[in-house]
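Listing S7. Sequence submitted for prediction.
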Amino acid sequence: MDNFLTDYKDHIIWIAGVIVMVIVLRIVTNLVQKWLIKKEQEEFPGENTPIIYLIRRILNTLWIILGLIAISFVFVNREKDAVLIRHFQLVFYLGILGVVTIVAATSTNLWFKRQVREKLQKNDDPTSYKFLRYVAVAIIYFTGILFALLAFPSLRGVAQTALGGAGILALIAGVASQEALANVVGGVFIIAFKPFKIGDVVRVNDTMVGTVTDITLRHCVIRNFENKMIVIPNSIINKEKLINYDLGELKCCEFVEMGISYDSDVKMAKLIMREECEKHPLIYDNRTEVQIKDGNPIVRTALTKINDSTLNIRAWAWSRSFGDSFQLQCDVNESIKERFDAVGIDLAYPSRNIYIKGDENTTA
């Protein structure tokens, strides 16, 4: 036993030193994790990101792998020391690079989220910060992957080409991901020219109406009035002729239309529609000073169309916003119908006379 300890004394000391070092590094990592969680709560109250726990697991795994490589020096020939050193350096480089990349991306993401929250508290537009958050995080991860490729000789040329901005990567991406690039460019155009922003109520078509909740590198998200999330690629929404109810003036003119029968009193129908619209609390007086002096009514009514079986009466009812206009239309439709029933104005409905061949005196 004494001979064994004497012969392998240096090896035992080396292994014990490596084990102690691994244990110390794991303890330091756990202490740093607790400190980071505390700082996170101070800087970003209410945020609880699992990234810190992921970093701790990565570092603790890294220390164990490096420790095993260091211990393996005892059991291999000295000719292979150079190979072990290269493996040790590669694992250390990739581990530290991964941690730095994750920390940078997470810190950037949290900073942008705080800026978005502050913008919302001040009732400012947070669209640019939300979009740039995705861009910044994507660039950080992409850069981390490229630097990881530099560690492998067979892939170093690809990484250097990408980092140098050569056109080969751009050509491959352009051919293989034209739609993805179109979405990215479309997102940039939306942020730059601002046809709409987060929080705006937009109408893409009759089936896609709602509030913009998010704008990413690939798509826009619209929450419709059924509380369903509509995801539209940026390249598609840039081609659409959409209506933004929050761009410029918020006031909105709603057409309240009724189709009455030929036997109904047109003047009475116009009067009822005007009165019901004007007395609604959400009506907005859009008249100019000249129109007010001339005695023009708040709500204009007119016979707009004579159909085969109906007379279309329209009222131009203004409201302060698109949401108010929808509520106004629903309310006045009901109140107008009640007034029409009370005075005997019929809402027209399609009717048809059927003549049975062979019996000229019979109709149905």
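Caption to Listing S7: primary sequence and predicted structure tokens for the chain studied. The radius of gyration is 36 Å. The longest helix spans residues 81-121.
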